[in-house]
Amino acid sequence: MKIINPLLFQLKTILVGILLFQIQMGFSQEEKTSALYKTIISKDSLLFDIGFNTCDVKQFENLYTEDFEFYHDKDSVSDKARFLKTFKSGICSPTRKYNYRRELIPGSTEIYPLFKNGILYGAIQMGTHRFYETSAGNPEQAGSFAKFTHLWLLKNKEWKLARSLSYNHQMTSSTAGLSGLFDNDQVTEKWLKENNVPTLGIGIISDGKLKQIKTFGNLKRDVPAPYNTIWNVASLTKPVTAIVALKLVSQGKWDLDEPLDQYWIDPDIAKDPNHKLLTTRIILSHQTGFPNWRDFNESKKLDFKFKPRTQYQYSGEGFEYLRKALEKKFHKTLDQLASELVFVPLKMNDSQFIWNDKIDLSRYAVNYDKDGNAYDPTKNKTASAADDLLTTVEDYGKFISSVMNSEGISKKVFDDMISHQVQTKKNKYFGLGFEIYDLGNENYALSHSGADKGVQTIFILLPKTKQGLIIFTNVDDGYKVYENIVVHYLGENGRKIVDIETK
Q1: Could you tell me which of 290, 296, 240, 234 has the C-alpha nearest to residue 260?
Q2: Nearest-CA neighbor of 145 among 122, 176, 124?
């Protein structure tokens, strides 16, 4: 026998009643320019911007009817007396450890008038708001979103709040008030234009497989980006190189901890004994001691900034060092090895390291600066292990799905890959070729990002739930749309990842 929660039943009854009333009366939403809309918004501001946010209890008391009722999906039902008591002794207690702030999500408000015999007697306000909290010595942190429905009544020419319903509390995206974002193409296209993002590609992985590809924006004027848009994904090249090496390790043809000096020694560091310490493990976890890139403009040579495996320093030079060692050992170029071990087995037909005539330029996402000026494409004639892979959302989705499912990688190697080789910040580490977010309760995410002129890309994998997300953009500051997308598609886990990055 199913037991019905009385509060939920009552809440649903009220909501259904409101909806039925709307249908029966057939009234329409108030325009934002109407006097009623402006009046209710002003009352909302008094209630929250002054009453709630500054703990002005008098403001609360003056705005409620005597028979006010508050329905909360997490905290039962309250009348006016109980609500004010809780407000005073809880959120606004003199001994409170946190300060709270409520923010109305722009664009989320809907207001409907209530009439009796043609005379206005009330209004229904519906919207979404978000709550923030601040503690002593700490910056403000975002809390949950919630939907709300308010019943305002006109009493003796004064607007009073008679009923308040607060429900659907959840940690979700700051796009909560933008109905249809990522599901409604027109809404999403408008949002991208507001953020000056020319093209966006999203890949959604569930059950360990790429299930959906979404592309938005244009490749050029009036030419919509196709689902198989070709992108330069910058440093998302590195995980491909890492998997090439790890598959060779799994096959017993390469060793994670074997010194690389028997295959390759860069002439710049030949006299430095630190080169004898370089291994594949050290390179894939960015502990080589190399800078990201040597400065060719000043004719600087490759050198060690610290002893290998003593600290973390992200380095493209390290991956290029590994490429040269692999190519010397196997007498094949990196693009040949990647084709044999990754691209062909996974049918990644639109992926390549080298710029050549095989590229369908009609599908290429040109890269832009934040002012809309196009960059010339990078046209590599030889494969880079660290940068400039050309691929599609579909191809890269196949690749990272195979990684999450440890296809072609032994259990021992996979365990090494997801182990914390070096910490980069609180709750964030580098494994072998992949960044690792510690999400708590033995849950974790694998990730990597890419950034070049006109390129901002990232992927996130959640191996425990077999979920994943790919985000490709073709503009210098494309990263500014990441948070909304990550939290929208990955929910609470996405929020934890964003918090790790931003705190």
Answers
A1: 290
A2: 176
Quote the CA–CA distance of 298 and 313 in Å, as a whole number. Answer: 21
Which of 494, 474, 493, 475 minimizes the C-alpha distance to 484? 494
**Are residues 324 and 264 in contact, defined by beta-carbon separation less than 8 angstroms?**
yes
Read off φ and ψ for residue 173, nearest 5 degrees: -75, 155
Distance CA 280, CA 417 (A): 12
Residue with tokens 């005073």: 88
Residue 40 has φ and ψ, to the nearest 5°, of -65, -40
Cα gap 65→80, rounded to integer Å = 8
Taking the C-alpha atoms of residue 33 and residue 1, their distance in angstroms, rounded to an integer, is: 51
Q: Which two tokens stand for residue 59?
A: 């403001």
CA 465 – CA 449 distance, rounded (Å): 21
pLDDT in tens, 37-73: 999 999 999 999 888 888 888 887 889 999 999 998 8
Q: In degrees rounded to 5, what are phi and psi of residue 91?
A: -55, -40
Please give the helix or strand (H or E) that residue 231 lies within, else none: strand 231-232
Q: What is the pLDDT of residues 403-431, one digit of tens each?
A: 999 999 999 999 999 999 999 999 999 99
What is the β-pairing status of strands 158-170 and 64-72?
parallel
Task: Please give, one letter per residue, the 3-state secondary structure of 22-38.
Answer: HHHHCCCCCCCCCHHHH
In angstroms, the CA 19 to CA 30 distance is: 16
